[in-house]
Structure formats: C-alpha cells, structure tokens
Design goal:
CATH class of the largest domain: Alpha Beta
Shape: elongated
Helix content: 40-55%
Number of strands: 22
Distance between the termini: 66 Å
Number of domains: 3
Strand content: 5-15%
Strand order of the largest sheet: 10-9-8-11-12-13-18-22-21
CATH architecture of the largest domain: 3-Layer(aba) Sandwich
C-alpha cells in the first residue's frame, strides 16, 4: 500500500469528532421533529404537506429545465409554453409519485427503494412527454432537451430533499457520548457487505459508545478506497501502525465465515495493540432476524476451533420431519434442546419433548413457545428407564421418529456411580429401542460418543454397550425400525464440557485446571452436532454408526491458553494453568472407530458410516446379566461384567 494511503495528511485524514450541526441545521432538525411528531400522526396533514413540498420542487425543476436548456435566456414563445404546461406536468408527476408509494414513506428515511420509486415516477413522466413530442404537434410538447433536463433535475431535487432530511436525522442522533458510556473507536475488519451494513448502522447511532473509524481488508482492489466516508486500509499487518495513530480500542470482525487461523491472527493483533475483539453474528442469525447487525459479540473459543460449516440436505431433512410425530429424549440438554429448535422449524405435526428434569424442560418449552408453530409442542416429564411411563407415551403420541439424546455423560461422576451409567445409558436405551420396535417407529437415532471406542471409562463403555444393543435390536426378528447411531466428539459449550468449566475458572481468577499437557480431544459445535444427527436420519438404512469428519484433534492445554488470552489475560502471568493429572476413566486421546468396524463414505462428503460385526451372544441374556449386577450396585462387579461384554474396555478398578 502506498505511503499516501496511510498518511494522516493523505486523502483520508484521521477522523475526529463528527461535525456539530450549526444553528440552521438545528432549526431544520427541530422542524423535522415537529413534522415527525405532528404530521406523522395526522395522515391528511402529512399528505397535504408533502403535496405542497413536492409540487414546489417539481415546479421549480421544470422551470429550471427550460432555463438550463437556453442558458437562462428562454425565448418568449417557449416561456408561454412552459407556463401552459407546468401545472399539468406537475400534477402528472404527483400522481405517479403517489402511485410509487412516495407519499407513504417516512420523510427522514431515504434508501434505494425510495430512490428507485422516484426514478421510475419521473422516467414515466418523461416518457409520456417524449411520446407527446413524437405523436402530436411539436409545439404542444416541451423540447427533447428540456424533457431530459427535467428528468435529471427532478430526480436530483427530490433525492436531495429526502437525503437532506436523512442527514439531519443522523445529526440529531449524534452528539456527545452518553454520560458513563465509554466511547470505543472501531476498526472494521473486512470491507464486505456485512462490514458496510455495520458501518452504516454505527454511523447512524453516533453517541451510543461506538464510532467506526476505518476498514481493514486484504483485497488490493479495495485498499485506498472508502465506504461511507471511512477509508479502507490494508493489508492486515498495517493495523499495528494505524491503531495508535487513530486511537483504535476495538476490532470488529465482519467476515462471518472467517477461517479459525485468520480469527486467531486478528485476536493476536488486537492483544498487541491493546484492543478488544468482537465478531458479528453468523449469517444465519442475521438472515433470520434473530439478531441485528450491530449486536456484535466477543470472539469465543468456538471461533478459533470451528471449521467450515457442514452443508446439509435441508430439503431432505424437511421432507423427513414435516408433518411427522417426532420425539426427542433429553430435550432440555444441550444437544436435545438444539434438536428441538431445528426440528420445530421443519414443521412437524407433533414434537414430543421428553426429559426427567422439570427445570430444563420448562426452559426449552418457554423458549420454543415464542416461535412459529409452537402449538405442536408436547413437553412430557418422564425417565427413559421407566418402561411403564415410556410405554404410555408411545401409546398416547405414537412417535414416528425418535432422537434419543438422554444420557448420563460426565466421566468422573459415572466412574463413581457405574450402576447409574449402566441403568440409564445402556439398559434405558435398550428398553426404549425395544418399545420403538414394538410400536413400529420408523427411525430411531441414538446419540453416542467417541468415548465408546476402546473405552477406559464407565461412561464410554456404557455407550458402547448401548451401540451393541442397537445392533442386536436392528437384527431382531420382525423388526421394521431403522436404528442408527451417531458418534460425537466433545461438543463445544455443552453443559459440563470443558469450555464452561474454563470460563468459570477464568472468571474466578484461576487457576485453570488441565489434567495433562498433551491431552487431545476432537471438538465440534452444537449446530454441527445437531446437523449431523438430522442428516443421518435421512441417509441411514439401519444398523449404521455415523461419524463426522472432525479434522485434527485439539490440545486441551492450548485451548486453555487461548481462552485466557481471549478474556484479556496472560496465561501463567495473570491466570495460572495448573496440571492436575489424569482422572480415573480419562484417556489421553480419543479415537473415531474400532478396528473391527468397516469404514465407508456416504453421499455426504463430511459424514462417514461404520458397520460393526454382530455382537457375540444373546443380547437379551447379557442385558439381563447387566441388569442384575447393576441392581446389586457393586462397582467392581459392574465393571468386570462390562469388561466381559466389551473386551477392549480397560476399567479403572479401586
């Protein structure tokens, strides 16, 4: 980039405070306020006022068109022609402006839609005058030069009038920052459509604590240009030189699909210049209207670990769920609640929300009640291990598709209470699948975990046993239900996961506890996980285990450092990272499939399916044995029984 582009004396001097309106502008703003308060409430008065203003402007522009055509020396005969035509021409323009909605628009708002209406109205009048010139006596119509000048001047005059009101409104909203509100000087990262919209919104809200100063972009075509009067600088590395000069204390990333490496670089630059980092909402949230463009949020660890979004077959998912009875167990949990949100958007005939915890079920119900189509909700408090209660739900609601997200998933807790893990994760799942098959459910999707592979924990082994029960139920005589399983890595932000734990520890001032410096995990976001579940329900035939291409695993220690840095602290300086040692049942790294599982691609490039060999022995027999030892409650005996059924399980024995 040239030196002139970065110099404070170049074409883009560093912006200071916005110019204060003078007395004339203040008077105009006061008049505008009166119009907005009084005229806006009285439709007739508003119509007459606009009619008078537009009539004056259009008459003046028509008069000026003749003067311009003859260099302000209009011949006498054309002067008489002008006098005869000015009233009918103005009336015609007013009628067309009304037809194009210009009398309904708010005075101080003027955008592309309003500008288009003005152009079309004036173009129509010009076309009529031109047709009159060709079809009738030439003396009855204005000269062609006058017609062209009238079109240009009318569009310019009306647009200038509306734009001036918009400028005054913007001035009226500007001024000194509110008392107690710190002004942030913002550098917008990305001269994109989203960045332009953000700058426009912030400029219209001056005095609210955020002032956009310039854009940063790596595109050489954009560097050196401006958007809404704000210069575009680049490349990214120049930010370290520009930030002190322009007193930047906040960066806003507007490229919503930024690669994690790019986000990491921006966060590092922000730390170097002493600025905070914000990011705009996702494109989906902006498009759906869930959040506004100016509602930025701090950069989170999910932005640094995320990947390109998984493209799903939305049409296929909609076809599967629309007008169907869908049941979600564990509906109040992180995965279950997101499943409910996305399923409701597909228009099911009934959505049965099952959870044993009253509070979380109430919360997701209240959230969904505010959404379109909420009349189909059926929240039910029930424990999936209670066969009688679940049988009653099946008889009452006759679910066609079930997503089974209910589970005990916390490794250390389940290590201390193996009976509960077996009862809920294995026996409860097996009983629910048996009911699904008995009642002719079309599809049953089990939420599993990568901890089920070569398990070292009770939780992981209980999930592996649930997968084995699923395989057995799929092969049961007379079964018509398609049983499918989905294995997740760690879900970012889910309840009890490492992310909320680290956030809580950072908020308390540390230390942040990591069990092993080299421990790695696969991570995925909640939307990714739920998208995978819904997609597998459309492509599975029965008996498959599905996994997502989760790229490379992430070191937990590195994640802890990044979260501390995102919070504005220095690891091991402001907040200590403490290595506590691995807990019973934990693995240093996770795997994605067993050695005896056949790995195959699916029609989706990011989803793979596995098929396991048939589980040895009679499933009813080993489930009965497992139920017996679980009811006895002896931890070592339960783990030994699980070891006999899953030979690759390495239990921790006290």
């Amino acid at each position: 980039m040239s030196t002139a582009s970065t110099s404070t004396e170049g074409p883009f001097p560093p912006p200071g405070n916005p110019p204060k309106p003078d007395r004339f502008a203040a008077l105009l703003r006061a008049v505008l306020g009166v119009l907005d308060r009084h005229v806006g409430r009285n439709g007739f008065v508003r119509f007459v006022a606009l009619l008078a203003v537009y009539a004056f402007l259009l008459g003046a522009m028509f008069y000026l068109a003749y003067e311009t055509r003859w260099d302000f020396g209009t011949p006498e005969d054309f002067g008489r022609q002008r006098a005869a035509l000015i009233i009918p021409i103005v009336i015609c323009k007013l009628i067309l402006l009304h037809s194009f909605g210009q009398f309904r628009s708010i005075l101080s708002y003027f955008g592309l839609a309003d500008f288009g209406g003005v152009v079309l109205a004036m173009l129509t009048v010009s076309a009529l005058m031109l047709g009159l010139w060709y079809a009738a006596d030439v003396t009855a119509a204005p000269p062609r030069g006058v017609i062209m000048m009238d079109f240009v001047l009318s569009v310019a005059g009306l647009s200038a009038f509306r734009l001036s009101l918009r400028i005054i409104r913007t001035w009226g909203g500007s001024g000194a920052t509110a008392l107690g509100l710190v002004e942030n000087r913002v550098a917008i990262i990305g001269a994109t459509d989203v960045g332009e919209a953000l700058a426009k919104e912030l400029l219209s809200q001056r005095g609210h604590g955020r002032t956009p100063v310039f854009f940063i972009d790596d595109d050489p075509v954009k560097i050196g240009r401006s958007i809404h009067g704000l210069p575009v600088f680049g490349p990214m590395d120049i930010l370290t030189a520009l930030a002190p000069r322009y007193r930047i204390n906040e960066l806003v990333i507007t490229t919503t699909e930024s690669a994690p490496k790019r986000v990491k670089k921006i966060v590092a630059l922000a730390r170097e210049i002493g600025a905070t980092t914000q990011i705009v909402p996702s494109f989906r949230q902006l498009a759906s209207g869930e959040v506004k463009i100016e509602r930025t949020r701090p950069v989170a660890i999910e932005d640094l670990l995320g990947r390109a979004p998984v493209n799903l077959d939305s049409a296929g998912i909609g076809l599967l769920l629309r007008d169907r009875v869908v049941m979600v167990t564990g509906a109040g949990g992180s995965i279950g609640s997101e499943l409910c949100r996305q399923i409701l958007a597909q228009g099911p005939r009934r959505l049965v929300l099952v959870d044993q915890t009253e509070l979380v079920l109430f919360e997701i119900e209240q959230e969904l009640l505010a959404r379109e189509g909420a009349a189909v909700l059926e929240p039910m408090i029930a424990d999936v291990t209670d066969v009688g209660a679940m049988e009653a739900l099946f008889v009452r609601h006759r679910p066609e598709i079930i997503f089974h997200a209910a589970a005990h998933k916390h490794v250390p807790l389940m290590e201390r209470q193996p009976a509960e893990a077996v009862k809920n994760n294995t026996l409860g799942t097996a009983g629910l699948m048996r009911l699904a098959s008995l009642h002719g459910v079309e599809r049953f999707v089990l939420i599993s975990t990568d901890k089920a592979i070569n398990p070292t924990s009770v939780m992981g082994c209980s999930k592996r046993l649930a997968e084995m029960a699923l395989q057995a139920q799929q092969r049961a005589p007379g079964n018509t239900t398609a049983f499918l399983s989905v294995r997740f890595g760690n879900v970012l932000g889910s309840s009890g996961s490492v992310i909320p734990t680290f956030r809580r520890q950072i908020a308390q001032g540390g230390p942040v506890t990591v069990t092993h410096r080299d421990m790695t995990r696969y991570f995925m976001t909640i939307p990714e996980a739920v998208g995978l579940v819904l997609q597998t329900a459309t492509i599975g035939e029965g008996g498959e285990i599905f996994i997502l291409d989760m790229n490379q695993p992430v070191k937990i220690y590195d994640m802890a450092r990044q979260m501390i840095e995102l919070s504005g602290y220095q690891p091991d300086v402001d907040i200590e990272i403490k290595i506590t040692g691995m807990r019973p049942g934990e693995k240093l790294y996770e795997e994605l499939r067993h050695t005896d599982e056949a790995h195959a691609a699916t029609e989706h490039p990011r989803i793979f399916k596995l098929r396991s060999a048939a589980a040895a022995g009679d499933a009813d027999a080993w489930l009965a044995e497992l139920r017996h030892v679980a009811n006895e409650g002896s931890g070592p005996a339960i783990k030994q029984a699980m070891k006999r059924l899953v030979p690759e399980y390495t239990p921790f024995l006290d």
